[in-house]
Amino acid sequence: MKKISLVIPAHNEEDNVALIHQKIKEVFSGLKNYRFEIIFVNDGSRDQTQQKLEELSRNFEEVKFIEFSRNFGHQPAVKAGLDCADGNAVISMDADLQHPPELISEMIAKWEEGFDIVYTIRKYPKQISRFKRKTSALYYKFLAGISDVNLREGGGSDFRLMDSSVVDVVRNMNEADVFLRGLSNWMGFKQTGIHFTAGERASGESSYDLQKMMKFAFTGITSFSVKPLYLAAYLGFIFSAIAIFGYGIYVIHAFFAETEISGWASLIMTVVFFGGLQLIILGIIGIYLGKIFKQVKERPNYIIRSKNF
């Protein structure tokens, strides 16, 4: 019997871990030729998530848990589960049931057809705001244009199946800023996608606020390309050329009109604009320097406080 490992990060999901375990168990009750394990990764939860996981692991042998020493983030949590999984294939998914467990059977069927990676393409339900849909679509288009990965709109979900050969490649990577959605695309292999409509969160509230989403977006952009640095250089050349051209026009006008061009407000606005542009460019360079700084220290992506296997 082939073994399927399911990796599920959990941050303050005390009401969801038992429910998603039950849903997954129901799915595998219809898959007689497979055995499974669920690796829950407790990412520094402050509620009763750890106690719930320990209780589940005592009652069900397929339930494993990894407890972090603190909150390290969603991507390191997925990476920890992949590092410890030993199934023939590994499925990563969220604990809030927005990733429907019913899709697992179809993902396994695609894997059996010979695909190494089966990713999912998310469709937002109607209750999700138009702003959320548009910003998500624009982000993935921007990421595809400015980096070396081409994530399809809706294809940035962490709900995916990876063959054990793919997991071995991910396991040997030691990046300080893990961006598994981009890595999955960058690695290649034989891939296919499955469409799904994201479900409603079973209970609790998402811990992904605007600040975390912005940080995650910058991680995705800077993890796979140096194009933003080239963009900064191009902007420097363009605005330098504009400044030289504009100053030439000013000199010619002053010479023939025998007068100076007044305009204190426009001068100040120009100074502020170029000052802001310089700060943006310095910020881009700073992000890359920060990534180098984190990488050369070679600190682990996560620290495990306890686990039951």
TrEMBL record:
> Which residues are listed as membrane-spanning?
229-252, 264-289
Q: Where is the Glycosyltransferase 2-like domain?
A: 5-143
Q: Subcellular localization, per the record? A: Membrane
Q: Which UniProt keywords apply?
A: Glycosyltransferase, Membrane, Transferase, Transmembrane, Transmembrane helix
Where it mainly occurs, coarsely classed, is membrane
Q: Which CDD domains match?
A: DPM1_like_bac (cd04187)
Q: What is this protein called?
A: Dolichol-phosphate mannosyltransferase
Source organism: Frigoriflavimonas asaccharolytica
